[in-house]
Design a protein that fits this description.
mainly alpha, Methane Monooxygenase Hydroxylase, Chain G, domain 1, 2 domains, binds protoporphyrin IX containing FE
Length: 316
């Protein structure tokens, strides 16, 4: 476009002004005042658009060990990916009957996000000095990634709450009200002291902040979580089945195994293992072969379920 064209009022520009006038008039607004606003407002910048200064002001270590910053930032990156996964879950559960193309495209996005999280976990396992980690973690007690609310929300939006109950309690609570099942959620049992049954402080604080939100989410998605949507609309359809199996594998086996590698790397020590900051018996709590959380149990054979999280499962 030459400078003559840039400064002249073209028919196209007039048409645009006309449309704007109609839009603002429909709301009883005066276009001319809004045009004044446009005249005085600044151009949008990249840094303002993505709130860069705010984003980069959110890393505040508790100690002066440099590697603590890596620990904070990687947790924040993970939470942002969790946000993206929830964003997709919100879209598929909000659609009255998501068509299969929309549904599988959203599943593909979630799979990609989880795969990135699994692949990048080496940043934790390999990327910090052990000596520094073992020191700065003491300043973080009793907080733990266990207290990630988004991680739990993803679980509640993917499956029926009974599938998140402690494996041994599932048959007993299967037909009971949601509240009874919530009492037996696997992570609530995992963060209690075996001898006394007392909740760890990490769990008490987590529940105090989030249990109402969790209860509301479970109720809200009882009939439209991913598993329910599958059963209602796509039962037996290969392209959905295959993606849900991928999602189950990534969220309930591969990411947990990648994550567990970090616990083994930093906390396994002769003669006695180092305690987790969240107070679980992590050697029993973290391995997927013990928890056996499966979002979509109908999509797996008995043999696959039996081998859940074991080396045989990963080969299969
Ligand atoms: C050096 C790195 C890490 C170590 C050693 C570690 C260790 C642990 C341990 C021992 C637990 C069991 C709960 C407890 O008693 O504290 C746990 C739970 C958890 N951590 Fe980490 N973690 C690391 C990094 C991360 C990161 C980067 C995230 C990302 C948000 C994360 C998210 C979680 C989640 C969601 C749980 C609960 C898992 C479940 O309930 O199945 N962790 N972590």
């Amino acid at each position: 476009m030459n400078s003559m064209e840039a400064s002249s009022v073209t028919p196209q520009l007039l048409e645009q002004v006309k449309k704007l006038q109609e839009k603002y008039a429909a709301m009883g607004q005066d276009l001319s005042s809004y045009l004044d606003g446009l005249l005085y407002s600044d151009y949008l910048t990249y840094w303002d658009y993505i709130h860069l200064d705010t984003l980069l002001s959110l890393q505040n270590p508790k100690t002066s060990f440099p590697d603590e910053k890596i620990f904070i930032i990687y947790h924040q990156i993970t939470e942002l990916y969790f946000r993206l996964i929830l964003h997709e879950l919100e879209q598929v559960t909000a659609a009255p009957h998501p068509d299969i193309k929309f549904f599988t495209a959203r599943l593909d996005r979630m799979i990609r996000y989880f795969a990135h999280l699994e692949n990048s976990f080496d940043i934790m396992v390999q990327g910090m000095e052990k000596d520094q980690f073992l020191k700065f973690r003491m300043s973080l007690l009793p907080s733990s990634g266990f207290q990630s609310a988004q991680y739990r929300l993803i679980e509640f939006m993917c499956t029926d709450v009974v599938n998140l109950v402690n494996e041994k309690d599932r048959p007993a609570v299967g037909n009971q009200p949601v509240e009874a099942m919530m009492d037996k959620l696997y992570w609530r049992s995992g963060a209690t002291e075996l001898a006394t049954g007392k909740k760890t402080l990490t769990l008490q604080q987590f529940e105090a902040k989030y249990i109402d939100t969790f209860s509301a989410t479970i109720h809200q998605h009882q009939h439209d979580n991913l598993y329910q949507l599958y059963k209602k609309y796509y039962e037996g359809q290969a392209e959905v089945k295959q993606r849900l199996r991928q999602m189950d594998t990534l969220s309930n086996v591969l990411w947990p195994l990648a994550h567990m590698k970090s616990a083994s790397h930093y906390l396994e020590k002769d003669p006695e293992d180092i305690k987790a900051t969240g107070g679980t018996n992590w050697q029993k709590y973290l391995p997927p072969r013990f928890q056996r959380i499966i979002f979509f149990p109908e999509l797996w054979t008995e043999e696959e379920k039996r081998d859940w999280g074991k080396a045989a499962f990963l080969r299969g």
